[in-house]
From TrEMBL, chain A:
InterPro entries linked: MetI-like (IPR000515), MetI-like_sf (IPR035906)
Taxonomic placement: Bacteria, Pseudomonadati, Pseudomonadota, Alphaproteobacteria, Hyphomicrobiales
Name of protein: ABC transporter permease
Main location: membrane
Organism, scientific name: Ancylobacter oerskovii
Membrane topology: Multi-pass membrane protein
Keyword terms: Cell membrane, Membrane, Transmembrane, Transmembrane helix, Transport
Family the entry assigns: Belongs to the binding-protein-dependent transport system permease family.
Pfam families noted in UniProt: BPD_transp_1
PANTHER family linked to this entry: ABC TRANSPORTER PERMEASE PROTEIN, ALKANE SULFONATE ABC TRANSPORTER-RELATED, MEMBRANE SUBUNIT
Subcellular location: Cell membrane
Keyword Lipid biosynthesis attributed: no
Keyword RNA-binding among record annotations: no
TrEMBL record, chain B:
Superkingdom of source: Bacteria
Record-given protein name: ABC transporter ATP-binding protein
Sequence similarity: Belongs to the ABC transporter superfamily.
Listed Pfam families: ABC_tran
InterPro entries tied to this protein: AAA+_ATPase, ABC_transporter-like_ATP-bd, ABC_transporter-like_CS, ABC_transporter_ATP-bind, P-loop_NTPase
SMART domains: AAA
């Protein structure tokens, strides 16, 4: 019976692994990319044609060519660089502060049950407050300029990082920790040689979630009064009735958000090559 | 060499996993501990490994009592428990961080060759089969050159072919440095193939029911008259225990 299982099991396992990335296998990576682009590009093209044919005015929803022209104009005047720089600086500062705070608190709560009992209920309570609700208070405390904006972003980023760090530490496999103990690792060695690498995949996911929220909160922060930044472009576009500028700013947000996320993923990839995921299995099969 | 003295363990839930177990194991001896589930075999091993503290009694190695994981004691678990972020070679060298790099690498290379996985040195654990992973776990425990090696049902998750292969492998590796082996298993044939002595345990509370010497020439295999007679003896001891447990449970 068990001998038979031995013969059958590997075959089944192989079949399962082959079946999993069926989507990627059927279409290929490039074709998947093209298929995903059909809908948005098609819609843009249709709208462009509709406006050109006079079927729609395109006043409130400008056609792609107008948006592109607006982007080019913003870039040429140097305004785009100015606004992108201001927004990037805020996200970077807020993200860095939020990551530092969230990671420290998460590590503290993960390392000791006493610390967890002390700080976790309070943090969970604070987390239940919509971060935007802090805005009036932050402005009173820190003024209307950079400090209150960066603080708002940091608060928004810190919670997912805290939750991700704590959850990752608590879910580390007891059995692997026991291997470390059986080799007489000290607490510090356990932390650096076992916990840190074990926690890393979850932590990267938490960082990505935090970065996403950072981009969300920078808009909120820039809505509360800014003279530069992509959020300012949005408000300015609304007040002066320039929908093309609004959509252009939205496009820049999308590109920056995607780029910074890709950067984070690329930076962490060499550290996570060992993961037993389906994408690795697919890569092994193909190359 | 390894002495368990009145070893007892009561868990906070009140479960008496072990009650007053005394056992002497000689240097280079292979002892198998068999018994049904819940008879305290794994608890016993965890206490010797220093991963748990006894409620009473003590564990002595060459007369020295141990309360925490000891450098002379290595352990192999039921699962390979390899660190997925380390290559096969770096998994084997995990317990050798205190050695100079050259010596560590030399020992790891020798161990890799010894388990027949020299060409897998740079692979990730996820790329290994179950049998290969368990061989790496064995090598990881053995490169630290323990004087006592504990094995907690190390082959129970493997298929019959791989299990037989690994049992043979274990004996070959054991012959290199001849550490004392304590093997916990629920497979009576495995115990008889490997051990010099078989300790039969009974539950509620966990204690020794019988100790049987296995005076058979190696290599051993089921099917010979003497082997099957011993197997019959162990089953005869375990049978009434099982019935009592069933009666208590009912």
């Amino acid at each position: 019976m068990s001998a038979l299982e031995g013969l059958i099991a590997p075959a089944q396992e192989g079949a399962e692994k082959r079946a999993l990335p069926a989507r990627a296998r059927r279409f290929g990576t490039l074709r998947l990319f093209v298929l995903g682009a059909v809908l948005p590009l098609g819609a843009a093209l249709l709208w462009e044609l509709a406006v050109r044919a006079g079927l729609a005015s395109g006043r409130l929803m400008p056609p792609p060519s107008t948006i592109l022209a607006t982007l080019v104009e913003l870039a040429r005047s140097g305004d785009l660089a100015l606004h992108v720089k201001a927004t990037l600086a805020r996200v970077a500062a807020g993200f860095a502060l939020g990551v530092a705070a969230g990671t420290l608190l998460g590590m503290l709560a993960g390392a000791s049950g006493l610390a967890r009992a002390l700080i976790d209920p309070s943090l969970q309570g604070l987390r239940a407050i919509p971060s935007i609700a802090w805005v009036p208070l932050f402005i009173l405390w820190l003024g209307i300029f950079e400090a209150s904006k960066v603080t708002l972003i940091a608060v928004g980023v810190a919670f997912p990082i805290y939750l991700g760090t704590l959850g990752a530490i608590l879910s580390v496999d007891r059995k692997i920790v026991e291997v470390g103990r059986s080799f007489r690792l000290t607490r510090l060695q356990l932390a650096t040689r076992i916990l840190l690498p074990a926690v890393l995949p979850h932590y990267v996911v938490a960082l990505r979630a935090g970065l996403g929220l950072g981009w969300m909160f920078v808009v909120a922060a820039e809505f509360m009064g800014a003279s530069e930044g992509l959020g300012y472009l949005l408000v300015d576009g609304q007040q002066l009735g320039k929908p093309a500028q609004i959509v252009a700013a939205i496009v820049v947000f999308a590109v920056l958000g995607k780029l910074t996320d890709a950067l984070l993923v690329a930076a962490s990839a060499p550290l996570l090559r060992w993961e037993d995921t389906d994408s690795h299995a697919a890569a092994a099969r193909e190359g | 060499m390894l002495r368990l003295e009145g070893l007892a363990k009561t868990y906070p839930t009140g479960t008496k996993a072990l009650a007053g177990l005394t056992l002497d194991v000689e240097a280079a001896e292979i002892v198998a501990v068999v018994g049904g589930s819940g008879c305290g075999k794994s608890t016993l091993l965890r206490l010797v490994a220093g991963l748990g503290r006894p409620s009473a009694g003590r564990v002595l190695i060459d007369g020295e009592p141990i309360a925490a994981p000891h450098p002379a004691v290595g352990i192999v678990f039921q699962e390979p428990r390899l660190l997925p972020w380390r290559s096969v070679a770096r998994n084997i060298g995990f317990g050798l961080a205190h050695l100079p790099r050259e010596e560590r690498e030399a020992r790891v290379a020798a161990a890799l060759a010894r388990i027949g996985l020299a060409d897998h040195a740079r692979r990730w654990p996820r790329e290994l089969s179950g049998g290969q992973a368990q061989r790496v776990a064995l090598a990881r425990a053995l490169v630290a050159q323990p004087r006592v090696l504990l094995l907690d049902e190390p082959f129970s998750a493997l298929d019959a072919f791989t299990r037989a292969d690994l049992q043979e492998h274990l004996l070959a590796l054991w012959a290199d440095t001849r550490p004392t082996l304590v093997l916990v298993t629920h497979d009576i044939e495995e115990a008889l193939v490997l051990a010099d002595r078989v300790v039969v345990m009974q539950p509620h509370p966990g204690r020794v029911a019988a100790v049987l010497p296995v005076d058979l020439p190696r290599p051993r295999a089921p099917g010979t008259a003497a082997f099957d007679a011993l197997k019959g003896d162990i089953l005869a001891i375990l049978g009434p225990i099982r019935r009592t447990v069933a009666a208590v449970a009912a």
